[in-house]
Structure formats: C-alpha cells, structure tokens
Design brief:
mainly beta; 6-stranded antiparallel sheet; Jelly Rolls
Length: 495
Amino acid sequence: MALRVTRQYADSLGDGAGKLRATRQYVNTVGPGVGKLRATRQYVNGVGPGVGAIRVSRQFADALGASDGKLRVSRQYLQVLASADTNVINVDTADVVSLSEQTERVYPHYKPIVIEAGAERRFTTGDQFEIPPFLFPIKDGVSGEVLETDGTGKLAWVAKGQEATASRLINGGFDFFQRQTPATLTSRTDDTYGPDRWAVLTQSNSVQVARIAGAAYSAWQCRMKQHQTLAQRMGLLQIVEYNNSKSLRDGIVGFQATLTSSVTQTVRYAVLEWTGTADTVTSDVVNSWTSVLYTPGNFFLGSNLVVTAIGSTVLTAGVATDVRLSGTISALCNNAIVFIWTENVVAKDTTLDVAEVGLYPQAADYEQDWKPRFYGDELALCQRYYEKSYNVDIAPATATRTGAFGSCSRDAWWVENFMVRYATTKRISVSPTLYSPYNGEAGHSGEYNTVQVFNANRALQIIEVGMNGFGIASGAGDFNIYDVQWFQWIADAEL
C-alpha cells in the first residue's frame, strides 16, 4: 500500500517547508516494521522537489538509519526511483547499479564518480569504500587487454604488456629541423627531407617548411606553405625503419595528429606498409596526385605498397583539429609509413600546420595523450639518421667555425690524422660531406694560418668511414705547413 500526501499535509506535519519529519515509530507504522520506508514515485514527488528525488534532514536519516547521518534504503526503494526516472539510477535483479547517461553524482562523504553511457559498476551488500573520479571506457575491451590510467582518472583498454608504448615515429613534435634554420621558411622540392625524419612530397613544384610555435601540448609544429603561383597538392611523410616496424606485424596501430589549415579544406592521412626490400623504400609513394581512388596502382604506387588505413577530415580555417586513424598491420610489412596530404590543390600562400603526430601500437580504441620524449632522447633518435657538427639550429653550409673540427698540416700533403666520432651510431655507414667554415663551400676545409687568418679552401681526404665516425688524412698537395685545416660536416643516413 502506498501512502499519498499533499504538500499541505507534509507542511502540517513538518516545518512548513514541504519537508516531512518522522519518528522511527511513525516509519514502522506506515512501513514494514523494520524502519524502512516504502514510497511510490508520487509520494517522493509530493515531499521532494518534483524530480523523483527525496530530500531528508539528518535527523530524519538518523531516525531511519544508524545515527550516523547516512540514509539506508532497500533495493525495492532504488527500483522505484529507477523505474520513475531513468536519469537517476538503474538497478537490475542482479544488484547491478548503473547510470543511463554520462553524469556526475556527488555522494555524502565520498568523492565524485563519473560513469559513461553503457558503463556498469557492481556492488555487493555491505560494501563501503571511497569511489575515485575515474572516467571509464564506453565499451568492453577484448581478451588479453587491461585497463591503463593516464594519471588523471581516464582509463582505457590496452594490450597486456603494451601499456604506455611510445610512438614509433621520430620527431613527431617537430623539435628538429637540422637541415635548415628552423624558423625560416625554406623551399623543399618533391621527395626531399625537411624536418628531421619527415620527407616533403609535392605534386609539381617546391613548397616551403618551417618550425613554428606549437599546438596545445607541444612546443613546436611544422608549417608547410604552398608558395607557388600555380596551385598544387602537398604532403608530409615518414618511413619507420625496419627494426621498429617488424614488431608491428599482425597488430593494431593507431595514428593521430593535430592539423591546422589557413583555409577550409579537406586533408587526408594514411597508414601504409612497404612490403619490398626492408629499408629500401620508394619514399615518393604517390602514383597519381589527381586520382580519387586511394588504392595501389591509382593514387598510390602499384607495387610493394599496402594501404593499411586511410581517413580524411574537413579542416575549418584557423581551427586546430585532432585526427586519428587505426588499422591492422599485415604480416608482410617491412616498413610502416604515415602520410598526410591535401586532398585538393591549394592556392598560393595556403599553409598546413602539423603537430603532435604519433603512431602507436595497440591503440585502436582511444586517443593517446601527447607525451613527447625528453628533448635529448629525441635528438639522439634523429641523429641516428642525420647528424652535423654545427649547433643543432644552425643550417649546414653556414659560414661559422663554431663546432668545427681542425687538424694541423704537417706538410703540403698531410694533416695530423684523427677520427671524428659521431654522437650517435648511424643507421648505416655513410661518407660525410665537409664544409668550409669560411664560406660554407661543400667538399672543402678552410685553411687558417697560425694567427687564425683565412688562407684558402682546401680539399681533404676522408678515410675509415663507419657507422660511428670517420677519419681525415691527406689533401691535394697545397697545404701550408703548420696551418690548420678547419671543417664542418654532416652525415646523412636517412632512408
């Protein structure tokens, strides 16, 4: 039997504010004799605020409960509320309590709890514990996956043993532009490197690249600028070395980036696989820029290339937009590739900014927070493929002796032999390119006399080339004895 009361009746029994005051004896009289009040939705609305939630004072709670100010309710009472208002609470016959939409509940003496749509939290009789403010995934994981927290209360499913796996891309935050002065827009022709580890692809003519201030969480980002009068398409690509690609086979990868365009346009992005000879990759993966069939033999090369996943997003002018994509790498992959490009031709002075790019193993179902490596670690990874004697932000061929190496001439032919040691072991053995510190002339040293006055550029012989360094020895017979041969160098071991 349900007791129905009007507001006036509640006021007459209570304090005139619509709140019902009741003793334990009264509750036992209208309830089942165990101190538990049974109420219908109408009753709750009658004495509450009209939304199906009952408001009680501490005294009233103590009268029903254990004198600790906590209200004890039965499952039947919860089910009455659940059936009346699906936005409050749901209770099934297995004692599973869930919320039907993402909402936050603040319970007395407990921290807030956030439960997303479709999530469930199971309780057993007598449980009392503090509930942390976790944000749960909206769906279950798959067999073998575990929950991983990002440290701020956000949980996500990841493969066991793959938690916190770093991106397979290098310089995804665009800290390093060793081939140029980073902040200066510098022209790059089709299929040449701009930022460290990133190749620039163009439809016809060169475009410009530079390092600019970063997006939301990164210090830097890469700006591509179409500076030609004739409109064209442009893109940015990175090839992952075989040693870092093979372990991706038969697994899911997640690609993500933050993109900003100066005009509203569609940008495409893809995860590709090179199945030809490992680390001997045709980096210009585009077969036909005008094709709208994004498959091998059409837009992409027709051989040794697999399109793992492809996506597109319409970027609103000036609005930084996060994009992501996932796919399963095949068993034939030798080199994973990521590629970002403009779907249509873009006019002169159009810019595309690329930031926070990552390729993460086992990351299909959720977005990774941008967590760059330490600056020195990222630089060492870049130097495996490209290293120079110049300071990191000084362009090669700059006229400077800062960072240069020098060796004294013993006679007209020979200098004091010595080895240049690389800071990082290179991907392959590669012969360096020398530059004169006097005027940046390639292939030469700059000879300076004993009072440091420049004489002339000289030729040096490079010897003992290896993955860890190289040596210098003789010249062309034109050295001045006791003068010093100064030189800068770069070592390029890119894919």
